[in-house]
Amino acid sequence: MIRVENLHRHFGGFHAVDGASLEIADGTITGLVGPNGAGKSTLFNVIAGALPPTSGRVVMDGQDITGLAPHELFHRGLLRTFQIAHEFSSMSCRENLMMVPGSQAGESIWNAWFGRGRIAQEEAALLKKADEVLEFLTISHLKDEKAGNLSGGQKKLLELGRTMMVDAKIVFLDEVGAGVNRTLLNTIGDAIRRLNEERGYTFCMIEHDMDFIGRLCDPVIVMAEGKVLAEGTIDEIKADEAVIEAYLGTGLKNREPA
Fold first, then answer.
1. Which fold has domain 2-87+166-248?
2. Number of neighbouring beta carbons within 10 Å of residue 116
3. Which residues in the chain show pLDDT less than 70?
4. What residue ranges of the chain are covered by domains with CATH 3.40.50.300?
5. Which of helix, strand or coil describes residue 33?
6. Which residues pair with 5 in a beta bridge?
7. Distance CA 85, CA 246 (A)
8. Given 3, 173, 218, 234, which residue has the most CB atoms within 10 angstroms?
9. Long-range residue pairs from 216-221, CB within 8 A, at least 24 positions apart, any chain
10. What is the pTM of this model?
């Protein structure tokens, strides 16, 4: 579904992404791991259109999407969440979901005057869908709660719910587990797996919790110093000498015998 070819993103003399190439296959939950500063979030930002690449290209379903704006990628079904949830804090959870789909009838001045029936019909459909999403995520009891009052984990669930309000093809999750307690993290993981298995979502996720990655992801891609270092199953990654060295600063071969 997504192919990244020799991608570079430089900030002056700093090469945050330095010739990364990788593929995200349709229907997978792909993990992206690596030490801090490896270039993972910058790679996400380039793929999702928040940053232009210095060079290289991104291909989605055989079409070059390099440099397209986030709203253009949104309409192609490429969505991205953030490490810090971006909710509309003064709006209810239900309202946060209902505002996601673009080109709503109520956005037109003409419809506001002469198409009120159409607006009402559309809003009723959006409300029904929002309630279904909240039920799927097991937070329907919070539908009328202001999003700003939610816990960190609940905000992450709500952000995941926003991707369900449109026809998402691939969702990039940036540290969905950051600051989330174990119970809610399990709920988030269950929702991701169900979206993948039942609704055909493709995911790519940055995460530092290797147990969480191991539970959900295959394959796992490792980045270090802006490059792709390794790819494989979680067990293969954990046993990879280059990966161990990137994380710990020394490989197994350099360890003294116990």
1. Rossmann fold (3.40.50)
2. 12
3. 104-108, 110-113, 115, 249-258
4. 2-87+166-248
5. strand
6. 57
7. 29
8. 173
9. 216/29, 216/31, 216/189, 216/192, 217/29, 217/30, 217/31, 218/28, 218/29, 218/30, 218/31, 219/28, 219/30, 219/31, 220/30, 220/31, 220/32, 220/33, 221/22, 221/30, 221/31, 221/32, 221/33
10. 0.86
